[in-house]
Amino acid sequence: MLNDRLAGHIALITGGGGEIGTAIALRYASEGASIAVADLEPSKAEETVRKVVEAGGKAVGLGVDVSDPESCAAAVAGAMEAFGKITTLVNVAATVTPDGTVETLSLEQWNKAIGVNLTGAFLMCKYAVPHMRAAGGGSIVNIASQLGHLGVQNRSPYCTTKAALIFFTRILAMDHAADNIRANSISPGFILTERSSKRVGGKDKARVINGPRHLLNRPGEPEEIAAGAAYLASSDASFVTGTDLLIDGGYVTFKGRVQPDGKTTML
Ligand SMILES: NC(=O)c1ccc[n+]([C@@H]2O[C@H](COP(=O)([O-])OP(=O)(O)OC[C@H]3O[C@@H](n4cnc5c(N)ncnc54)[C@H](O)[C@@H]3O)[C@@H](O)[C@H]2O)c1
């Protein structure tokens, strides 16, 4: 165990079968939390569970479609059945959103992005909050994006849902402060995962193309997001609520590129 900062915590993680979700599950377990790993693809959730258990942690796997209210209620019930309480909810699940403008995107594509990326967090909070209150409080961590801060052409479904998720989190923090529930979002920069790298043709290309967009001249790793998520779940963040934590290597700080000589040029 890394430390016991999250001992006694029960964390429900959606999108827990993905790369960032898996890193968060492993980090939480290494700090003593028990994990309910929920994902649209149950086999991916089970793979994360296998990794957590192999590392000496406790986890159960659940299937969930976060855009479906009944499925969200069932996932929360599943976590309760497995562990008897929920102290931490991490909304990581997001759908791969299509590129296009208002003229080329269909209403179905738009609604799907809203349904998974935004309504998904709403629904999971809706069903988990009563249990978190009953547990005496807890922490909600919503995974937003640097693209909820800086827009990208042709990606209104993604950018809009992530910007809205940041704002939703603020209101969530207001609504449930009296329940001792803290709510914060994390906005990652470009994190080297299969999903994000596919757009530019793989991880090697993504390093070269996306790395220089960050002041630190490299993409981030899922474990760097997990470290922030563990902080926000822990009592080290006991006075932190309603905030958005940029873990982005300086992506949002400047509109430019780092050149091979290490100097930055502004765009
Ligand atoms: N990788 C990056 O560069 C980056 C940057 C900023 C923000 N993010 C955010 O981080 C999160 C994780 O990204 P990742 O790169 O690990 O992606 P990923 O594709 O590896 O993980 C996403 C997971 O969500 C699951 N999922 C999709 N639709 C779902 C649904 N309807 N219900 C439940 N689960 C569903 C997928 O099966 C997958 O396991 C996402 O919210 C993403 O928007 C990623």
Walkthrough of the structure:
The chain is an alpha/beta fold and 267 residues long. It has a single domain (10-200, 220-253), classed as 3-Layer(aba) Sandwich (Rossmann fold), CATH 3.40.50. The protein contains eight helices and nine strands. The protein has helices spanning 19-30, 42-54, 69-83, 107-134, 156-176, 194-198, 203-210, 222-233; strands at residues 10-14, 34-39, 58-63, 88-91, 138-143, 181-188, 244-247, 256-258, 264-266. The strands form two sheets. It has a seven-stranded parallel beta sheet with strand order 3-2-1-4-5-6-7, with helices on both faces. The protein has a two-stranded antiparallel sheet with strand order 8-9. Helix 2 (42-54) links the parallel strand 2 (34-39) and strand 3. The longest helix has 28 residues, at 107-134. 49% of the residues are buried. The structure holds nicotinamide-adenine-dinucleotide (NAD). Residues 14-15, 17-21, 39-41, 44, 64-67, 92-95, 116, 143, 145-146, 188, 190-191, 193, 195-196 line the site of nicotinamide-adenine-dinucleotide (NAD).
Brief overview, please?
The protein has 8 helices and 9 strands. With 267 residues, it is α/β, with parallel strands linked by helices. Nicotinamide-adenine-dinucleotide is lined by residues 14-15, 17-21, 39-41, 44, 64-67, 92-95, 116, 143, 145-146, 188, 190-191, 193, 195-196.
